[in-house]
Amino acid sequence: MHAIVLKKCLCLNNLSNIFILTPSESWFKTISKNIKLAKNAGFCYGVKRAVETTIKLKKENPNKKISVLGELIHNSHVISELESSGIKTINSLPDKGEGICIIRSHGESNVVFKQVQDKGYELVDLTCFDVKKVQNRAIELARNGFLVIILGKFEHPEVMAIRANAQEYATNSQNVYVAQTIDKLKLIEDRIKSSSKVGVVLQTTQTKEYLYEIIDYLIDKCKILNVSNTICPSTTLRQEEAKKLAQESDLMVVVGSKKSANTTHLAQLLQDITQTIHIEDENELDNYKEIIVKSQNIGITAGASTPDNIIQEVINKLERTV
Known about the structure:
Elements: E1 2-6, E2 28-32, E3 35-38, H1 45-60, E4 66-69, H2 76-84, E5 87-90, E6 100-103, H3 110-118, E7 122-125, H4 129-143, E8 147-151, H5 157-169, E9 176-179, H6 182-186, H7 189-194, E10 198-202, H8 208-218, E11 225-229, H9 233-246, E12 251-255, H10 261-271, E13 275-279, H11 289-294, E14 298-302, H12 308-321
Parallel strand pairs: 3-14, 4-5, 4-6, 6-7, 8-9, 8-10, 10-11, 12-13, 12-14
Antiparallel strand pairs: 1-11, 2-3
């Protein structure tokens, strides 16, 4: 995470969570003469840790109930596999808990942590380390009297948790605001201008392009602007690799859940470079057969919640189609 303090000028403190890929680097894997897979496609380390730890917990505790508060990751195939092995997804806490309750990689507020324990569950926290850093930074800004702006999707569980944690330490809950677009920021422009200091953090799956766009908008409207680049390194690397691969491709195939923030951001980025389709699994390729057949060079990438077997099934079907 990189902090930036801005006071009527742009003073960046290591904003560049940015990866420059040179031609000599192996940033893709050639599948066939016209199909290439981005090197960092699929599970990120936070998702991998969450899935592997959850499966391990069940194996070590076969007779104990294992519940996950909310979907462990945004991938229906993985959730179905977990359910079939006895790992239950719950969307709310019952009056009385039993067994282990897992906090997913998106995190939760301290209030929810206490509720889980008060219900009688054994709590296991699998919040991604990068998400935890964003929470801690938002808390720090709130404690120090900043108007805290969280750049991200309001209803996304990661953003909801960041917001809840910051509000717990803010002097006023209204001093923590979520903005998905500049238009949302314009709604509180008067508050931004009247605030003595404004602090910004980002949902870990946002793009650096959006961050720079927000800085450009805010810089002349704040007395003091403190921006923390909390986009996780895995997200940035995945985006940079995919953009480079897109420049050499007639078609980019992005594999992952439509509910996954990092996957949808990835698809949106690539649409500005080349023809791009976003699919959840190989079955959706049938909808794009004509496009696929006409494409000379196809690039494949996948979101952080997409398992390897789903990616491989997409590759296999593409090889049969082209």
